[in-house]
From TrEMBL:
It comes from Halomonas heilongjiangensis. The modification N6-(pyridoxal phosphate)lysine is found at K58. This is Diaminopimelate decarboxylase. GO terms for biological process: lysine biosynthetic process via diaminopimelate. Its cofactor is pyridoxal 5'-phosphate. Transmembrane segments: none annotated. Residues 37-283 form the Orn/DAP/Arg decarboxylase 2 N-terminal domain. CDD domains: PLPDE_III_PvsE_like.
Length: 415
């Protein structure tokens, strides 16, 4: 059974007031922007000297989320032309890098003309395309080579981008060739290396060892360059996991930062280390709130059929977990006198896969009650198949946003 999270009073007030304004049963995302800023500040404050924090906007690229985090973090990590447009519309301009496989020439050119700080290069083919574009713009462009290093099996997580066959980065065995290709490209300059090896890393000790394995190899990687003195950056990616089932037991970020600081202090020429974190920054600020439309029992199993579903919040289905559910009864006194039983929480889609959570013990649930799914601020709405069955998109409410025009906002297709 999933452990529950408490909902702050100002979020409960925002949910209640939106509900009053809804003419139809509600399904909406609420984002706690002050909590998001506070989390960003706390994560940044824990960093040791010589370490930077970028926000990987793929986790949640809504304008209000980027605007809230941008003043707090050191920069943004982007992976598409659409993300470039969103980052460039941000009210606090920050440095940004462009990464990801399958970069379009048009996006690389757009990035250069809009002042990209560096590219994370994924392949030898990308080196030559980037060189041609930089030459046509008469620009000297900083690049980091993304490495797919060999990794010991005990350092892996559920979702691996490195240490195995993947479309990401350059195999360590081919790194010397890639470094030579960049060194030979007159319009490119190698400034560092990038490794984003995994998602959902929940174990701080394991992540420490992973970072240590990069730092051990760093002098060797750097020595491959014709001008090692220019190679100063090691981007260690994101990938810190969120414990959705036990929200009180989260990854020990301060512990990781402390251990990393000690390791860097012991190095003769430490790199500038950069994290590009998505999930672990934005997950905690989001709440997906859905209304119970129907209650039923089928073959002995209780179902709560709710407004919305996995087409708006695909995360639990994508990760294969039972998301925590908090019950907000319309009539609390009636609910506390009602029967407690396990419920499977489903949405409005015509597929048995539209399950948000299984077997949640809830008391006195009735049609018209609200269910709140917390930890919904990262890879929630934006990874979902929102147009399936032509349901309207959910509202997104940014609580604590100084610009009133942003509240509420009908979700736009993610470009
Ligand atoms: C290159 C790269 N950097 C950073 C991230 C962010 O990862 P996370 O949200 O797990 O921190 C991703 C996510 O897939 C990524 O592909």
């Amino acid at each position: 059974m999933a452990e529950h999270v408490t909902i702050p009073d100002h979020m409960l007030a925002a949910i209640a007031s939106h509900r009053q304004a809804c003419r139809e049963p509600m399904a909406a995302f609420f984002y706690d922007l002050p909590a998001l800023a506070a989390r960003g500040r706390a994560m940044k404050a824990a960093l040791p000297p010589g370490v930077e924090l970028y926000y990987a906007i793929k986790a949640n690229s809504e304008a209000a989320i980027i605007d809230t985090l941008a003043p707090v973090v050191d920069g943004l990590e982007l992976s598409s032309g659409g993300e470039i447009a969103r980052a460039c519309a941000c009210s606090t301009p920050r440095p940004w890098v462009l990464s990801g496989p399958g970069k379009l020439d048009a996006d690389m050119r757009d990035a250069m003309t809009r002042g990209v700080e560096a590219f994370h290069v994924e392949s030898l083919g990308e080196v030559s395309r980037l060189q041609a574009i930089a030459a046509s713009l008469d620009r000297l462009q900083a690049v980091l080579l993304r490495i797919n290093p060999a990794l010991p099996p005990d350092l892996s997580s559920r979702l691996r981008m490195a240490g195995t066959a993947t479309p990401f980065g350059i195999d360590e065995a081919q790194l010397a060739d890639a470094v030579r290709a960049v060194d030979d490209a007159p319009n490119l300059t190698l400034v560092g290396f990038h490794v984003h090896a995994m998602s959902h890393q929940q174990c701080e000790q394991r992540h420490q060892r992973l970072l240590a394995s990069y730092l051990e190899r760093w002098p060797r990687w750097r020595a491959l360059a014709r001008h090692p003195e220019r190679v100063t950056q090691l981007n260690v990616g994101g990938g810190i996991g969120v414990n959705y089932l036990q929200p009180s037991a989260q990854f020990d970020w301060p512990g990781l930062c402390q251990a990393l600081g000690q390791r860097l202090e012991a190095m003769r020429e430490p790199p500038l280390v950069r994290f590009e974190i998505g999930r672990f920054l934005s997950a905690f600020c989001g709440y997906y709130v859905i209304e119970v439309l129907d209650t039923k029992v089928s073959h002995g199993e209780g179902f709560l059929v709710c407004r919305g579903g996995t087409h708006q919040f695909r995360l639990p289905a994508a990760q294969g977990h039972d998301h925590p559910v908090i019950h907000l009864p319309r009539e609390p006194r009636r609910a506390s006198a009602g029967e407690r039983r396990p419920w499977t929480v489903v949405g409005q889609l015509c597929t048995p896969k539209d399950v948000l959570s299984r077997q949640q013990p809830l008391q006195g649930v009735a049609v018209g009650d609200l269910l709140v799914l917390p930890l919904a601020g990262a890879y929630g709405y934006n990874i979902s198949h929102a147009d399936f069955l032509c349901h309207p998109r959910p509202d997104q409410l940014f609580v604590g946003d100084s610009r009133e025009a942003r509240r509420p906002q009908r979700a736009e297709p993610v470009s």
